[in-house]
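User: For my dataset I need records formatted as: sequence, then structure tokens, nothing else. Please produce one.
Assistant:
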Amino acid sequence: MSKFSQNFLKSIDKILGKFLVKICRKTKRFQKRVPQEIKEKYTVLIIRPGGLGDAVLLTPMVMLIREKLKDKVQIHYLGEKRNVEGAKFCYGDMIERFFVYDSLSFLLFLFRNIKKYDFVLDTEQSFLLPAFFANILGKKVIGFAGTEKEHVFDIKVEYFFSRFEAVNFFRLGLALILTIEQKDFDEKEHWGISDEDVISYFRLSKKYVQKKSSVAQLEGGQKKRIDVLFAPYTTRKEKMCLSLFEIIEEMRQKGYKIEVVGDRKLMFQDILKMMEESRVFVSVDNGILHFSNFVDGLKVVALFGPTNHLKWAPPNAFVLRKYLWCSPCSKYAQIPPCPRNIECMKIEKSELKKVILSFLQDVS
């Protein structure tokens, strides 16, 4: 999706979303509370706006739902064009159907599926329109508390700004599971879910694992052919670190085996294979960074500035950032205009190089 399209959707959400959520809230007051129906199979819709990273970080939640409820649920996914392919790669074998809402066919989907789903998970943190759509499509809606849309949810899950984002999503999945199992979802009981609990659910689709296994047998095991894999590109210039490009060139000249991703189109499986073949992975906050959660033992250096490293950095990553009073400045995914010329991403080249070289010494 182009930046213009993204900004257009945000503007529509700000104006129309606020109005529609208000209407939804008023109608919700007059609806009778229907007891949870006991069924052999439940239909579930997951709504996920946003980019690639958001879709990747949903993986543990989807895996948890499928593991605990098995064939008791039929899961559909409604996302944006820019994240649906990533979702299909990560958990395509867990979900029956995928739909896209930033397309003309979405209106047809909306009218055909009014109150069709037993449960809708609104995984969006701040935008309002997904909550409105969720109430049209679902009999019961589960979503994050913290904004005005929390009043249109049947089950509210507290949103933590200082927790790994996959943990927040994971707790949404847990609320669904407990509701279907006719158990009460007590928020406080599940505040203690750790990053380690969630990381263990970063598992790739069976199709990829089987393909990887057969390739590894042919090649005689996984070899570390890349010294450092860099992912320096991002759609937001505020998250770029220019010193990375200088380091890439310097390390190439010194004979290190360097690869760069993000500057050309690659299949997701190719990116993941490159990570598995790398000794060190260095990235800014972008969608590719989140794939490193799938790779055991990979040394990850993550560069953060305007965005919150506590929310978005892989738990096992070494986070490099400048400790400025104004960083991070973004709330949810919004980065405000910077009056300081994005000082937070001017990370010292010598410091970054020192970290990379120390990790190279640690990994054979």
